[in-house]
Amino acid sequence: MIVPAKFVRALPPVVGACFKNWAQYMYDSVPFQLADSPIHSTAHTERVLLHALLIGGSEAGEDERTLTILAHAAVFHDTRREAEGKDTGHGARAASFYEEFCKTHPEVAYMPEAAYLMRYHDRRDDLGEAAIAAAFPDSAKQVIQLFRIFKDADALDRWRLGRRGLNPDYLRTDKATHLVDFAKKLVMLTSIP
Predict the structure, then answer these.
(1) Comparing 37 with 54, which gets the higher pLDDT?
(2) Pick from 85, 80, 17, 1: which is nearest to 53 by CA?
(3) Residue 114 CB partners (closer than 8 Å, separation 6+)
(4) Rounded Cα–Cα distance for residues 60 and 147 (Å)
(5) Could you report the per-residue pLDDT of 124-181, keeping only the tens digit for each?
(6) What angle do CA 189, 98, 26 make, to 5 degrees?
(7) Which residues, at least 6 apart from 38, have a Cβ–Cβ distance to it below 8 Å?
(8) Model pLDDT, residue 192
């Protein structure tokens, strides 16, 4: 794992356990189509996982199911990228891959909410929120909140793209706005020189 151990030790116990479990699972078992990508493979995914769990634990509580939905979305969201630049549709490909992966890996219980988070993470917010509202009419508010958390977690790692990679004005959650400096520091500590 690339996240410094001191950061992991500082996490609330439930969040820390979820982070360690899913980061290790990703490294051991999840294949990436662009495995050698310097900007869209395991290092990026591990940082997004950390951000998603930090924001999720703060904004949505430390409910294990909620954290697992965010963890699944983070771990699988960029696995089916075909290009480094704009690759609209990689979220949908990742969601399909995730569903098939869960069928052959019973230790990963399929969570439809996670599939929707990743399916629309590369699309406009309004499209994702409308699809979530239609798919989860009884829990739309909660799933849309997770969608916003996940999109912010992914956005926070845009520091890896350079000093102008992230515009904090586009973040959706209060907790994410407070993680901007931490996210920048994390990229500096975990990026390959």
Answers:
(1) 54
(2) 17
(3) 68, 69, 70, 72, 73, 76, 98
(4) 11
(5) 999 999 999 999 999 999 999 999 999 999 999 987 877 777 888 899 999 999 999 9
(6) 30
(7) 192
(8) 63
